[in-house]
Amino acid sequence: MQMATPATAPTAPIQTGPADVTLRIATGLIELAPDHIVSTTLYNGQFPGPLLRFKQGEPVTVDLFNDTDIPELVHWHGQIIPTDVDGSAEEGTPYVPAHGRRRITLTPRPAGFRFYHTHVVAGSDLNRGTYTGQAGPVYIEPKNDPGAYDREIFLTLKEFEPTFSQGGDMAMDFLAGTPIPELQQIGKKGDLEAEVKTKGYEVGYDLFSINGKMLGHGEPLKVKQGERVLFHVLNASAGEIRSLALPGHRFHVVSLDGNPVPNPADVPVLWIGTAERISAIIEMNHPGVWVMGDLADDDRGHGMGIVVEYSGRSGKPQWVKPKPYRWDYTLFGRAGTTAAPPDETVEMLIVKHNAALHGFNEWTLNGQAFSMETMTPKLAMHEGKRYRFKFRNASDDVHPLHLHRHSFELVRVGGKSTAGIIKDVVMLGGFQEIEFDFVADNPGLTLFHCHQQLHMDFGFMQLLEYV
Ligand SMILES: [Cu+2]
Prior knowledge:
By secondary structure, the chain is mainly beta. It is about 5% helix and about 45% strand.
């Protein structure tokens, strides 16, 4: 490898003998429902990929086999690990060759709910990248588990059968905060000055699933009255924002992206951006047979839900539409405090250029789209410094912003200050601003991007470089 890889996290020597975990990337079939069998790329022939349970700080060896015709990358989302195993070509991680294998060793950290997924470019090919079934949950066991629940259930939310369409606006009124007129003006000005007046392609889906089954086709979740169930919910979508409600019940949110929140709080609905994770306890105190599902009738009608069945109850699963609920991250933050001051603030203006790239929208950060050819722009960072990123969204889209190999702390969301919420993906609302801080404490190239596959593939990326 030409890439010098500065490894700060303890890297164990590559072991010989059998690996702790084997992931085999191959095309396979998944039965979402008896009449909806989908062919896609999977890990170990299943969707979601196997739940991997690691122990914080204990090295694991993973064999990655690639039985497909294209080089692949397995990204360990949310982990603070070196570039040679992170799973990002932009950072220099070697590919798992087509019909080849690669053995890696990583030391899982931090504790909590993470996941793994492919990190290749899909571009206009809906059979690649996160449009496929390459995603699975990871749970890194903490040293001490508070365990105030009776059992835990992992839910992976995922759409299948993607198609391109033109137009089709995403719901965006679910996030707290109000659009900023100045950003709306910048967006409008860009639209007026653009040569292309049509809107770019968007991706829609035919089939929706939880844990690889359409609503009504998997085993119901069987619960008992009085039980406290900890749900670990992963949005493994390629770009959709998901919601989830269970009629008559509330979610007690304890962790966001696997990190305990300073202020666990009850909410009637979860809103989960692409690649976000939410861990929430539901106290089962409303007996019946219910649909736990997405608020969007069409998506739920095409499978985005799962049946929750109390013991001794039977009948048709009931859905009750919840009242509109605005998702506000700051609810879970430390009230009355502000984050530590940064050493440096970096401002980034996000602009959409409608249909500018062969019909696809192009995305720029401070006027530049990321180039995979030149791997630029690169942003210089100094180890040990605390950086504040201020993003200004001059588009109407919600962007799930993701930082590799580091966690960040939310500082300001929807016009409100907060502290203590540690994440690796956060939704930025249309024409809104967001600020988060992170400490440059894991040297090596670090990728920042929007987790919408369609956005990251068409410019919405940036590399951070330790200098
Ligand atoms: Cu985006």
